[in-house]
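#structure-requests
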Amino acid sequence: MLASCVVYATKERTDTGAYRIPIALQFAWAIILGGGLLFLPDSPRYFVKKGNLAAATDALARLRGQPTESEYIQVELAEIVANEEYERQLIPSTTWFGSWANCFKGSLWKANSNLRKTILGTSMQMMQQWTGVNFIFYYSTPFLQSTGAISNSFLISMVFTIINVCSTPISFYTVEKFGRRTILFWGALGMLICQFLVAIIGVTIGFNHTHLDEAGASIADNIPAVNAQIAFIAIFIFFFASTWGPGAWIVIGEIFPLPIRSRGVGLSTASNWLWNTIIAVITPYMVGEQRGNLKSSVFFVWGGLCTCAFVYTYFLVPETKGLSLEQVDKMMEETTPRTSAKWKPTSTYASRRGAEEAYVKNGDAAV
């Protein structure tokens, strides 16, 4: 939002400050982020992975706001340790290349396999980019200028950004109240409706129908219709920012088991930026006057892809609300995405580990 305000403030400049000022201001936030990373604590699961249980206990106590001797902390730590040992049996330590190869192990038809989780994470980020939101943020200014209906397209672009920023905190509540799968499902539905409305209005009475004024500039025949398109674009941004914007990142942070978590999230993030780049490159060819010149029809493309995201969520996205990373792993093993919201943990890795140890001891005693 701040970046959008700075761009708006420098839009009238004709010197190099038009781009140097916005770029220079980004260094301040990079310094803040880089400095803050120095004070960022490691997670308890990282310490468990390294075999430092004392540090894991301290990190977990700090995270939960509980004393280290709390029963709640000890039970959760025992579950983390048991899950780590269980997953090490399934995914042994290996070389650097082998650790990346672990992300692609398992059957495509097994819901809990590493391969399925990697595909889910990377495709989730792909779907987020397919919604077309970055078409709005990257190209809204020239797109709106070309309609001839907006006198200050920079201001409208800034309004879109403000809506994006102000709508995102809504997800802080809804993601825990209604769940990840639920907000992604309804968010995709809201987005596809808005996208198709923008497209239909545009090809019937909106932006696609223009005429030349006395100065030879292109102006929309029906300016109120174009304004309606802009309103639905704003509503689309609201749906995205309150659902798929943060929701996709939450899901990929919760579906990967500890041994491949960092690499799985890394691959998912790479997928996000890959499709971000692809869409940024192909969009000018889709809407350029000398290229595809799709005008409002481009929203049929985004609407169709939002429909894909809607179907994708229904069939493939599990509900991870209220579950620990260890419980998510078990949930994906025992249920399907469509029934995952009803799944409740019936046992823990720690309890099963204790039962197995007791069974072995009893067997030895009997011998």
